Amino acid sequence: MRSIAIVNQKGGCGKTTTTVNLAGALAADGFRVLVADMDPQAHSCLALGVDADERDVNLYDVLSDESRTQSLESILVHASEGIDLAPSSIILSALEQKLATERQESRINRLADALDEVRSNYDFVLIDCPPNVGLLTFNALRAAREVIIPLEASVFAIDGVQKLLETIHLLSDRLSHPLGVRILPTLYDGRTRHARQTLGEIRERFADLCFDAVIRQNVKLREAALRGKPVAIAAPTSNGTMDYASLALEVQAQGPPALAETRLETSQEPTTSRQIEVCFRDDDASDVRIAGDFNGWVPDKGVRSLIETAGSTRVWTKVLQLPPGTYEYRFVVDGEWQEDPENPKTVTSAAGRSHSVLVVP
Ligand SMILES: Nc1ncnc2c1ncn2[C@@H]1O[C@H](COP(=O)(O)OP(=O)(O)OP(=O)(O)O)[C@@H](O)[C@H]1O
Ligand SMILES: [Mg+2]
After folding, report:
1. Which fold has domain 274-360?
2. How many other β-carbons are positioned within 10 Å of the β-carbon of residue 125?
3. Is ligand 1 within 6 A of the CB of residue 43?
4. Which end of the chain is flanked by fewer CB atoms within 10 Å, N or C?
5. What separation in Å is there between the alpha carbon of 227 and the centre of ligand 2?
């Protein structure tokens, strides 16, 4: 079971939306997912159509009692196909006080111990955290091996994220508990120059800590939450469903880098390399990737992608960081390889295929 905590002390940045809809996307891919709602606001419960007030037992009953007379399994609710929920309650906010006299080691391990019980029943547990870094978030970090930090792409405040990363580092060091951290840009509105700039800054600042996936603003995500369903079920063809499906693919494709290896400093690209943008425009395509000799012909490997809509046309911008040289590439459009229709410069490969050519001066 992979355990992923969704963490940011900033409110309203998309933690719950990410928890529920990443769960929905993973479930749609056939995985068994447990959502642990560690936020006393119980928004994950709401977004999965579960009325927290109607539950007799919830995570508080499991976490507050060291002898664990209440098993985790006994409080679980089946929320939708492939998704079970460990419900929260407002009373969870009293956990810190309830455990105040207990040893730190015992207080902080409660969720990890509880999850051990169900480890073999799920492929993923996603833990939704409250907008603060207190005992509940520490429990989530202790129970997790991976962390996703949603960052609102329009109001990105570097200091808050840096502090959060430092806290995670500290905890991870102190407990000898390795955590892989990744950043997910959310609430992205590609129509505004400000959001595009901010997304660029986030990518520049956090480099390979960032997911390639970007969650765009999409009203269907809000509506799905109000309907108590993951967007993959409530609006299967929406941008929200597509964005969380991309995120789920990335999560499946690779575990995150170990924290010790992640770069927290500003990324230092070799001074000679340049940022190059290659665009692909299409009315019908839903997935466009780029592959070339610069990334070992692995579609989108090491490439940042921006997707914008202009009228009925979608524009994929592939951002490459390349030293001077001549490169060959092709696009992969919904799984079909093709040359760049906007680039007249091509060469024929040894296999007789036409490759587009890019020259970085
Ligand atoms: N990509 C999006 N497009 C449109 N609305 C969104 C998107 N992501 C989140 N929202 C909406 O923004 C609000 C805040 O999102 P969400 O509840 O996921 O944030 P949060 O980080 O969990 O907040 P809190 O810190 O209070 O727990 C919600 O109403 C949600 O429906
Ligand atoms: Mg929330």
Report:
1. Immunoglobulin-like (2.60.40)
2. 26
3. yes
4. C
5. 16
The upper half-sphere exposure of residue 322, i.e. CA atoms within 13 Å in the direction of its Cβ, equals: 22
User: Tokens in use for 151?
Assistant: 């960052």
Spell out the residues 6+ positions from residue 231 whose beta carbon is closer than 8 angstroms to its own: 21, 24, 218, 220, 221, 224, 238, 240, 241, 244
pTM for the whole thing? 0.74
Q: What are the structural domain ranges in the chain?
A: 2-261, 274-360
Q: Is the CB of 262 under 6 A from ligand 1?
A: no
Q: Is there a shared CATH topology between the 2-261 domain and the 274-360 domain?
A: no
pLDDT per position in the chain (361 positions), as tens? 999 999 999 999 999 999 999 999 999 999 999 999 999 999 999 999 999 888 999 999 999 987 878 999 999 999 999 999 999 999 999 998 888 888 877 899 999 999 999 999 999 999 999 999 899 999 999 999 999 999 998 776 667 888 888 888 888 878 888 888 999 999 999 888 888 888 888 887 787 788 999 999 999 999 999 999 999 999 999 999 999 999 999 999 876 545 434 434 433 434 478 889 999 999 988 889 998 888 767 788 888 888 888 888 899 999 998 888 888 999 999 888 899 999 999 988 766 778 999 998 8
Q: Which atom of ligand 1 is nearest to the CA of 17?
A: 18
**Ligand 1 atom having least distance to the Cα of 13:** 21
Nearest CA to ligand 1 atom 23: 12
Q: Which fold has domain 2-261?
A: Rossmann fold (3.40.50)
State in Å: Cα 14 to ligand 2 middle. Answer: 7
335: left (phi over 0), alpha (psi -120 to 50) or beta: left
- Ligand 1 closest atom vs CA 19: 18
